[in-house]
Specification:
The chain is α/β, with parallel strands linked by helices. It has a single domain, classed as Purple Acid Phosphatase, chain A, domain 2 (4-Layer Sandwich). The chain is built from six helices and 13 strands. The protein has a seven-stranded mixed β-sheet, covered by helices on one side. Helix 2 packs across helix 4. The chain is globular, with a radius of gyration of 19 Å.
Length: 285
């Protein structure tokens, strides 16, 4: 993956994507992997990550890559919710190092990993930056340049013609998530995020383990063209890879009672040095 990364701020990154005069590029976005949880559907997750490699896609993971609830300090811990390979006195180290090793194959395609509520909660309890340690470890063993984001922020994909100056950006907002709802599946967040994150073309959020794509129309002032246009801002909710409902029992079944969406989202960008950039999004099957 030939992408140049630049951190403008902790919550804003730019990525330069070189293109031919007519080109296709891909992005895979997922969240709520909960990779260290025994209920993580790793087979499904790796099938999507392998598909991303086949497409030479950029990969962004926006929060809750980890579960990390089995530390001795954590009131949520359960003996049945820890993988055998992570059952040791250096629990956090075991999870971080093991995950980095298993992600090494994908490291050069991963452009951004951001924090979710599980990472921030454990970081507060354990007084260590969980995501920072993971990204540092992955970059060390893979020789990659994975960037770390915050809980909420922006990143821009700048599609540039390799032999000229035809450059077209797509601005992406991300937030691990806040608002949910068993019936609404968090769709009320569309209007909220449209107000909070007005400067993005696509807004990704997770946290609720739902999956949907919703457009939001908005008036945009075109100063250089002396007109007002109606544009679409796209809102995408990425699901999870933690299957909590299959056995018909447990906390999720008792408290939520509704199965959740497993998977992420692929974005296909079509670049034309004369016509600009367009994109389409597809949730994974």
């Amino acid at each position: 993956m030939d992408v140049l990364a630049k951190e403008v701020a902790g919550n804003y990154h730019r990525f330069k994507v070189p293109c031919k005069s007519k080109d296709e590029k891909h992005l895979f976005v997922c969240s709520d992997v909960h990779f260290d949880n025994p209920k993580c559907n790793r087979e499904l997750f790796f099938s999507h990550m392998d598909r991303a490699l086949e497409l030479d896609a950029m990969i962004a993971i926006t929060g809750d890559l980890f579960c990390l609830m089995q530390g001795k300090y954590d009131p949520r811990k359960s003996k049945s919710a820890i993988r055998p390979e992570h059952n040791g006195d250096n629990y956090l180290d075991l999870v971080i190092n093991d995950t980095a090793e298993k992600f090494k194959k994908y490291a050069h395609n991963i452009i951004l990993v951001t924090k979710g509520n599980h990472e921030t909660s454990v970081s507060n309890r354990a007084e260590t930056d969980i995501m920072g340690r993971f990204v540092e470890r992955l970059n060390l063993i893979a020789g990659s340049n994975v960037q770390m984001g915050e809980y909420q922020g922006y990143y821009s994909l700048q599609f540039n013609y390799k032999k000229g100056s035809c450059s077209y950006p797509v601005h992406i907002g991300y937030a691990h998530g806040n608002w949910g709802g068993i019936i609404t599946k968090g769709t009320l967040s569309v209007v909220r995020y449209a107000a909070i994150m007005p400067d993005c073309d696509i807004m990704f959020s997770g946290h609720t383990h739902d999956g949907w794509i919703v457009p939001q129309a908005r008036y945009r002032r075109k100063e250089d063209q002396n007109k007002v246009e109606i544009e679409r801002q796209w809102h995408v909710k990425t699901g999870t890879y933690k299957e909590e409902f299959d056995g018909g029992k447990g906390w999720a079944v008792e408290r939520i009672s509704m199965p959740k969406y497993l998977g992420g989202c692929f974005v296909r960008f079509k670049y034309n040095k004369h016509k600009g950039i367009s994109f389409e999004m597809t949730l994974t099957n």
